[in-house]
Specification:
With 396 residues, this protein is an alpha/beta fold. It has a single domain, classed as TIM Barrel (Alpha-Beta Barrel), CATH 3.20.20.140. The chain is 34% helix and 18% strand. The chain is built from twelve helices and 14 strands. The protein has an eight-stranded parallel β-sheet with strand order 3-4-5-6-7-8-9-10. A four-stranded antiparallel β-sheet has the order 1-2-11-14, sandwiched between helices. Strand 3, helix 1 and strand 4 form a beta-alpha-beta unit. Helix 3 runs parallel beside helix 4. The longest helix has 17 residues. The two termini are 18 Å apart. InterPro entries: Amidohydro-rel, DHOdimr, Dihydroorotase_CS, Metal_Hydrolase. Pfam families: Amidohydro_1. This is Dihydroorotase, mitochondrial.
Length: 396
């Protein structure tokens, strides 16, 4: 839902501690301000890490999202249901006391994963998907799959029986394949044969980066093939890696692609298609691990993701389709209920912090130091804004 509010002049800034605000009062200093009311979004692809890093970043995702699919690529990786349950408890302990955030756990697929582990995962009630990393494809993927159609086939067949989605990091790791072509080659060499062999397997192609991935997802059967899309792949192209010098905080995997690919992804996401849904792939690293001779891949976008998605949909003239992308398509694909709580986005400029400081060091967020135009409000502030809307409507 899109509304226009009238806010007071700066010298009479709205204070959330007040009981009511007369939204109908206007003056020569006032101007309409756009507001969006959305069903609370979920993040269907999130890295929370562990230990001190988990404590630092978990509250940022919990602030805006109701649920999140948690990636299992820790050291050691989360390969069993027992490990997933233990990791979930660590996440819950890292959340603010008043948080309702729900982590949805995943298993890390290896060549030795057993079909029985899939049964245990489904019956646990806390594991919702299995993640496949081609060995060596990205951060902590060294234990990933080397033989998907051989050693892993019995597991994949059990996943069909249990209706357990397979989440795919869609890149080949052959050193002879150009890094910018790894996604396309993976689609042709792995995903197409996989879908043909197991058409009832639910597959999510994670963090898509190319028009080839868009076409592939659109060609599949709705409800069985979908994709998550990150803010960075909607907003940045590969020039962002090199403008003004090497930009390590824009480096992620899969790597950013050409502008034509970015445009194709924007068109697909803002079309209203149910096949695409929000997955930030927020992947924090300490500053010193990004700004070094061999920097880590990953962009920490949790504090800004909702604002950036709104920016993309607004620029595409598709704000009416934002809620489905952020809040409906994901749970519908996973067969989970949609959230009932709300989040509000106000068209109000705010500056992204230059860095976030913690006892172990600093983390640089995406768009650090930049000004964004959509500001999320949750919890008590969202309720106050809801009262503003109702008072304005009643007086109107």
């Amino acid at each position: 839902m899109i509304n226009s509010l009238v806010f007071p002049r700066p010298s009479e800034a709205f204070k959330f501690a007040s009981t009511r605000f007369d939204g109908s009062r206007k003056s020569k200093y006032s101007k309409p301000r756009m507001e969006l009311t959305l069903t609370q979004p979920d993040d269907w692809h999130l890295h929370l890490r562990d230990d001190d890093l988990l404590q630092a970043v978990a509250p940022h995702s919990a602030k805006h999202f109701g649920r999140a699919i948690i990636m299992p690529n820790l050291k050691p990786p989360i390969t069993t249901t027992a490990a997933a349950v233990a990791y979930r408890e660590s996440i819950l302990k890292a959340l603010p006391a008043d948080s309702n955030f729900t982590p949805l756990m995943t298993l890390y697929l290896t060549d030795t994963t057993s079909p029985n582990e899939i049964k245990l995962a489904r019956r646990s009630g806390v594991v919702f998907a299995v993640k496949v990393y081609p060995a060596g494809a990205t951060t902590n993927s060294q234990d990933g799959v080397t033989d998907l159609f051989g050693k892993c086939l019995p597991v994949l067949e059990e996943m069909v029986e249990e209706n357990m989605p397979l989440l795919v990091h869609g890149e080949v790791t052959d050193p002879d394949v150009d890094v910018f072509d790894r996604e396309k080659v993976f689609i042709d060499a792995v995903l197409q044969p996989l879908i043909q062999r197991l058409p009832r397997l639910k597959v999510v192609m994670e963090h898509i980066t190319t028009m080839d991935a868009v076409r592939f997802v659109e060609s599949g059967e709705e409800g069985f093939l979908a994709a998550t899309v990150t803010p960075q792949h909607l907003i940045l192209n590969r020039n962002a890696l090199f403008q003004g010098g090497l930009q390590p905080h824009n480096y992620c995997l899969p790597v950013l692609k050409r502008e034509t690919h970015r445009q194709a992804i924007v068109s697909a996401v803002t079309s209203g298609s149910k096949r695409f849904f929000l997955g930030t792939d927020s992947a924090p690293h300490e500053k010193q691990r990004k700004e070094c001779s061999c920097g880590c891949a990953g962009i920490f976008n949790a504090p800004v993701a909702i604002s950036l998605y709104a920016k993309v949909f607004e620029e595409a003239g598709a704000l009416d389709k934002l809620e489905a992308f952020t809040s409906f398509n994901g749970p519908d694909f996973y067969g989970l209920p949609r959230n009932t709580s709300k989040i509000k986005l106000t068209k109000a400029s705010w500056k992204v912090p230059d860095s976030l400081s913690f006892s172990f060091g600093n983390i640089i967020p995406m768009f650090a130091g930049e000004t964004l135009e959509w500001q999320p409000c949750v919890g008590e502030k969202a309720e106050m804004l809801n009262e503003v809307q109702e008072v304005g409507a009643n007086k109107g």
